[in-house]
C-alpha cells in the first residue's frame, strides 16, 4: 500500500523538525523566576564598609597566593593617614616563634582621587597545610590588626580541596547576599577563584575610586582569611581618556598583586598557580591575545608544562565567556575562542569559568574546532575531550541580571538561570570532583545546579548531562 503525497510531505517535515530539535534543543532552562528588582550599591555608611577603629588602622586587608606552588602568600593592605610600617609579623599556630617579612608601599592618583598608602608584602617558605597568624600595622604610628590563613596541602594528584567561585561581585545588597551565602555554605571553600569585575567603581562618576576603597573593606571579611585568585575583567580596565586616564588597569595594578613572575608571565593579568591537586590558569580577556602577543606565547608554552600526574585538574579562569546563550555579550569571546579552543581540547582542560554575563550557565563538554572555511561544519558539537564552560558572572553587581536568553536553548547549554549566586567545586581525588551552584533566593542560598565531573585525563568517561538524564 502506497503513502499519499500529503502524508509523505508531513513525514518529511516532521523529520526535519525533529532533526532541528535534536541539533538545537539544549538542556534545562530553569523555571525559577527571580523578582525583578533594581540592584543598587549599598550606602557609603553601610556597616560592611566600616573603617576599622584606631589611628591609621590597616584596612582593605586581602591575601592571594604568592608563588607557583602554594608556599607563599601576598598580604596587602591600605593605611589612610600615613604610610606606617611595611612589616608583616607571622607565626604558625603551634609555634611562639615570630617571623617578619618586609614589603613595599605605593600610591596612585586617578583623576581627582588620591589613594591611601597601599602595602604589599610576600611571605615565603611557608609550610603546607598549616594555619598561620599574621599581624600588620606594627610600629608606633599604626593600630595593629591580626588575621590568619591556612596554607594548602602539598601538591599531589589525590589531594582533596574545595574552591569557591564568584564573579562580577560589585557592592550592592545582592553582592552582600552572595558573599554571605558563600561564607555560610556548609561546603567550606578554602580559596576563591574570582573571575573578574571587582568593585564596579567605574560605574560611578569619574570612576570614583572611593568605591574601590569601600569594596576592599567589604570583602575583607573573607579575603583577609583565605586567598582570592584574581582575574581581571572589563571593569578593571579603568581606561578613561576623557578625564585624562589613559593607562589601562591602573587602580587594579596598584591595589592587587598576582604571582605572575613565578609563572614566567610578563604581566600580572595572565599567570598560573598550583594548589593541591589543581593547576589554575588565569587569562586576560582584555589584554592582547592574538598570535605572537605575550599572552599567546605564554599560554602556548604553559599548557605543555602541566603535569597531570601531579595536578590532575586543569582549570582555566577568564572573564568573557566563549559559550553564552544570553542576549548580553553574544560572540564577544569568539575571537579568543578561535585562538585558543583547540589548545583546550588538545590538553584536555577540565573546566573553564568565566563571568561578564550577569547570569548563570553551565555547558556540556563542547567544542567548535572542526570548522574550517570550506567544510561548512560550523556548529558546536559535544566533545568529551573538551572542557565544561561555566558562566558565573552572577555575583550581584549594580548593573543587574541579564534575563533575556536566546531561543531555542542551544544543544551545548546544559543548564541556565537568571539569578545571582556562587559556586563551589569539591575535588575529591584525581578522578572525581563535585560541583554545585547556589542561587540567592529569598535571603537563603539554594543549591540549584550540581554535577559530578570526571577528570579528562584520568577518567574521561561521558559525564554530560544527557548521559545522566
UniProtKB/TrEMBL annotation:
CDD domains recorded: FN3 (cd00063), MPP_PAPs (cd00839)
Cofactor field: Mn(2+); Cu(2+); Fe cation; Zn(2+)
Origin superkingdom: Eukaryota
EC number: 3.1.3.2
GO molecular function: acid phosphatase activity; aminopeptidase activity; metal ion binding
Alphabetical UniProt keywords: Aminopeptidase, Glycoprotein, Hydrolase, Iron, Metal-binding, Protease, Signal, Zinc
Boundaries of every Fibronectin type-III domain copy: 57-154
InterPro entries recorded: Calcineurin-like_PHP, FN3_dom, Metallo-depent_PP-like, MPP_PAP, PAPs-like, PAPs_C, PAPs_N, Purple_acid_Pase-like_N
Reactions performed catalytically: a phosphate monoester + H2O = an alcohol + phosphate
Family assignment from sequence similarity: Belongs to the metallophosphoesterase superfamily. Purple acid phosphatase family.
Subunit structure: Homodimer; disulfide-linked.
The name this protein goes by in its record: Purple acid phosphatase
UniProt source species: Castilleja foliolosa
Lineage: Eukaryota, Viridiplantae, Streptophyta, Embryophyta, Tracheophyta
Encoding gene per record: PAP2_9
